[in-house]
Amino acid sequence: MQNNALGPAHVLVVDDDPTVAEVVAGYLHRAGHDVGRAADGPSALAHFARRRPDLVVLDLMLPGMDGFEVCRRMREQGGPVPVIMLTARGDEEDRVLGLETGADDYVTKPFSPRELVLRVESVLRRARVAVPAPGASPAADVLRTATLTLDPTARRATREGAELALTLREFDLLAFFLRHPGRAFSREELMSEVWGWDFGDLSTVTVHVRRLRSKIEPDPAHPSLIQTVWGVGYRMSGPEPAEPSAPEPSSQGAAGHE
Predict the structure, then answer these.
(1) Which residue pairs, CB below 8 angstroms and at least 24 apart, start in 194-197?
(2) Which of 1, 89, 182, 254 is deepest in the core (most CB within 10 A)?
(3) Of 127, 124, 173, 125, residue with least CA distance to 148
C-alpha cells in the first residue's frame, strides 16, 4: 500500500489468463505492492513454499488444479494467509465453496481492477498486526469467555487452551462478537462492521458464521455461543437473556431466509 508505515505487501497473483494477470499485477504494483505471479496451481504452490505472500489473489478456474484445491493446500502448508478468489462463475454455490475452502473474499469477473485493489488493501489492513499504544498493557485488550481467549494484538485465539486455526475473517468476526456480547446484529451490520463492505452477498456472512461455529462450539449443530436470532441475524451469548438458538440454515438460498 502506498505510504504504508508497515511496508509494502507481497501479493501473489495466480491466474492463467496473462492479460488479466498483467492488469491485476500492474494495478497492485502501482498501489505500492510487491507482486509475484503464477499461471497454474503447482507454480503457485511452489512460489508459496519459496516465499510466503502476505495475500493471494487466486483465480478459481485454473488448468489441472483448480483454485479450491490450491487454497486448501496453501492452508495446509502455511496457515491463515489471506486469499481473495477471482471467479467468472455466477453460481452462488461456487462462491460459497470458495469461502468454505478458506477464502477471505471473492471478486466476480469481469471486475474493476481499482475495486480489486481496494478489496486487497481492505483485507491487508485487517491482516496487519495491531501495534499497542505506548504504555498500554496488551493483556488489557485480551477478550475472554469461559472457554475462549482471543488476543487481538497477537492475533491468537484459543478454545479451552487449544489454539484455534482461524482465517482472517473468522478471527475478525469472533473478535467483533466478543466485543459485543448479548447484542444481536443483522448480517448487513456484520458485513459493514467486520468486512467493511456497504453491499455484498450476505451468504458470505452466513458461511463464515457456520465455519466459526464449527471451530468454537461444543456442538455446532446446536450452537450455544453464536446464536441465530430469527428475523434479525446473530448474537454472541452474553449477559442479556438469550432466546433459544436455532440450527444454521443451509448455504443454498441462505441470503434470503434469515
Answers:
(1) 194/169, 195/105, 195/122, 195/169, 196/122, 196/126
(2) 254
(3) 173
